[in-house]
């Protein structure tokens, strides 16, 4: 059994959400059932990049994580694409046996048994600006599958007022999931430098909007890796 892997990189810091700032190695799965208009990881989504995705066994994946982390247990972040398309249970089993922890980022469209083995399940339902429509039954299935995990959280990207209102409604569906909001990055081309002022302005708008609204449920965070490295890949 092999998995399609777009990239394995690190150690770096987790740039988003509940584990922001935590040292981590990323495993980025190839393939996604969504096509978000603003996706910052299209090299792991679109089939025109499929030839760059390596078919790797769980042993090969684990060897690379061990090499990058120098055998020192840390949190491994499984992202993509949608990693839930594939079976990461064997990779997680290897890592746990060696004392590593696991987080997974997924949009919540496909529930997997292995969510139960995670330390952190990050569910990131997509707001209207993405052009995708959330299947809430499927999402609820992911929440249930992740119940045995140490923690499950919700992370929503907000580009505009419509997304903001949508995020409030999404939180109302799952008030028990700790909520993280991050402003959307409108410029995701790896060859175009990010406009840090524009990023800061969107973060300011999102913060001001929530505070003026008296909505104190979410934690509001920038994408730390974008502040440091812009749209560079593999960081
Ligand atoms: C690239 S996705 C991969 C995992 C999974 N497919 C998902 O969307 O949750 C990882 C995270 O990056 C976020 N993201 C993608 N493009 C973004 C952008 N342009 N600005 C801000 N966050 C973005 C997604 O919403 C998700 O929370
Ligand atoms: N440093 C860093 N943090 C991240 N958090 C979520 C990421 C992702 O693309 O899933 C990501 C990423 O690509 N790099
Ligand atoms: S679900 Fe995630 S990986 Fe897939 S297109 Fe949307 S942001 Fe990109
Ligand atoms: Mg990313």
Automatic annotation (TrEMBL):
Keywords: 4Fe-4S, Iron, Iron-sulfur, Lyase, Magnesium, Metal-binding, Queuosine biosynthesis, S-adenosyl-L-methionine. Its cofactor is Mg(2+); S-adenosyl-L-methionine; [4Fe-4S] cluster. Binds 1 S-adenosyl-L-methionine per subunit. It is an enzyme of class 4 (lyase). Mg(2+) binds at residue 41. It comes from the Bacteria. Pathway: Purine metabolism; 7-cyano-7-deazaguanine biosynthesis. Substrate binds at residues 13-15, 28, 79. GO terms for biological process: tRNA queuosine(34) biosynthetic process. It catalyses: 6-carboxy-5,6,7,8-tetrahydropterin + H(+) = 7-carboxy-7-carbaguanine + NH4(+). [4Fe-4S] cluster binds at residues 32, 36, 39. Signal peptide: none annotated. The keyword Lyase applies. Residues 19-231 form the Radical SAM core domain. InterPro entries: 7-CO-7-deazaguanine_synth-like (IPR024924), Aldolase_TIM (IPR013785), Deazaguanine_synth (IPR017742), rSAM (IPR007197), rSAM_sf (IPR058240). One of its GO terms (molecular function) is 4 iron, 4 sulfur cluster binding. HAMAP family: QueE (MF_00917). PANTHER family: 7-CARBOXY-7-DEAZAGUANINE SYNTHASE (PTHR42836:SF1). Catalyzes the complex heterocyclic radical-mediated conversion of 6-carboxy-5,6,7,8-tetrahydropterin (CPH4) to 7-carboxy-7-deazaguanine (CDG), a step common to the biosynthetic pathways of all 7-deazapurine-containing compounds. Homodimer. This is 7-carboxy-7-deazaguanine synthase.
């Amino acid at each position: 059994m092999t998995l399609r892997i777009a990239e394995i990189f690190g150690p770096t810091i987790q740039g988003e959400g509940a584990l922001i700032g935590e040292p981590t190695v990323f495993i980025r799965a190839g393939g996604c059932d969504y096509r978000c208009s603003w996706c910052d990881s299209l090299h792991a989504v679109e089939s025109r990049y499929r030839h760059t995705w390596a078919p790797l066994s769980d042993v090969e994946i684990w060897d690379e994580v061990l090499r990058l982390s120098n055998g020192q247990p840390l949190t491994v972040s499984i992202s993509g694409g949608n990693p839930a398309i594939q079976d990461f249970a064997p990779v997680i089993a290897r890592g746990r046996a060696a004392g590593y922890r696991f987080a997974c980022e997924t949009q919540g469209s496909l529930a997997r048994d292995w969510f139960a083995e995670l330390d952190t399940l990050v569910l990131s339902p997509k707001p209207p600006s993405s052009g995708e429509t959330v299947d809430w039954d499927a999402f609820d299935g992911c929440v249930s599958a992740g119940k045995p995990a140490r923690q499950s959280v919700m992370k929503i990207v907000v580009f505009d007022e419509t997304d903001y209102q949508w995020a409030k409604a999404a939180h109302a569906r799952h008030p028990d999931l700790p909520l993280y909001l991050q402003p959307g990055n409108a410029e995701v081309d790896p060859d175009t430098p990010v406009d840090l002022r524009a990023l800061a302005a969107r973060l300011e708008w999102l913060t001001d909007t929530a505070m003026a609204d008296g909505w104190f449920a979410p934690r509001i965070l920038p994408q730390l890796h974008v502040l440091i490295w812009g749209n560079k890949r593999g960081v």
